[in-house]
Specification:
alpha/beta, 2 domains, EC 2.3.1.286, metal-binding, NAD, protein acetyllysine N-acetyltransferase
Length: 250
């Protein structure tokens, strides 16, 4: 394991442009359950029934009560873990250009990452369906469900529901980074949900080295990853960051 960490650190130290792709696995250590797998949201809740945009528009109160309010409570109090902080430190050192995240928890920003591409939007803000007013999610109480804007309209989280498109800017910038990077860190995701799953493949096709950090092997491990660092995101990324040489000037 130490040999692979050193190999990954050398790659990151030499890389002209490095980007990270993160999924739910990096936020598990912050107390946020994943959406798939053991202990996930979708074990007990049918996503097509409660996470589809049509379901929300048809009965926002029900979706808020069953799914959104519980998720909001978790995200309002969640704090970045060592994995988020390690990626922010890599960016601070000039060793990471951007984070492409499938998560909606804004923990990368809270950790200090500055360029975060939110593939599936964010839960940090809510928008009124009627007037479009945007408010910080943490500032909106759950006294009444669904919560209402001052204009009387219903608030919705600024995340991407099933049935909605990925924000065009996020998709475009992600593709640009994936096609241009020398190295990609894939953290806490099996990269099976499209179109995010195509980013490591696109990077690989354009000559990038793929460094995967996950607790168990994924479909990506055997097909795309060049270096597989097995373990929790917090522990592995902390060790990797410590091993990366701080760039010096020309």
């Amino acid at each position: 394991m130490e040999t692979r960490i050193q190999q990954a650190a050398e790659i990151l130290s030499r890389s002209r442009l490095t980007v990270a792709l993160t999924g739910a696995g990096i936020s598990v250590e912050s107390g946020i359950p994943p959406f798939r797998g053991p202990g996930s949201f979708w074990e007990e809740i049918d996503p097509m029934e409660f996470a589809h945009v049509d379901a929300f528009m048809k009965d926002p109160a029900r979706v808020w009560e069953v799914l959104v309010s519980g998720l909001k409570r978790k995200l309002d109090t969640a704090k970045p873990n060592k994995g988020h902080l390690a990626l922010a430190e890599l960016e601070n050192r000039g060793c990471l250009s951007a984070v492409i995240t499938q998560n909606v928890d804004s923990l990368h920003q809270k950790a200090g990452s500055r360029d975060v591409i939110e593939f599936h939007g964010t839960f940090a803000t809510l928008s009124c369906l009627d007037c479009g007013h945007q408010a910080a999610s943490a500032d909106i109480p759950l006294t009444f469900l669904p919560p209402h804007c001052q204009c009387g309209g219903v608030y919705r989280p600024d995340c991407v529901f099933y049935g909605e498109s990925i924000p065009l800017e996020a998709l475009t910038r992600s593709r640009e980074f994936a096609s241009q990077c020398d190295a990609m860190l894939v953290v806490g995701t099996s990269a099976v949900v499209h179109p995010a799953a195509m980013m490591p493949v696109l990077a690989k096709q354009n000559g990038a080295t793929i460094i995967e950090v996950n607790p168990t092997p994924t479909p990506l491990t055997a097909t795309t990853s060049d270096i597989f660092l097995q373990g929790g995101a917090g522990s592995v990324l902390s060790r990797l960051t410590e091993a990366v040489a701080i760039p010096t000037g020309p």
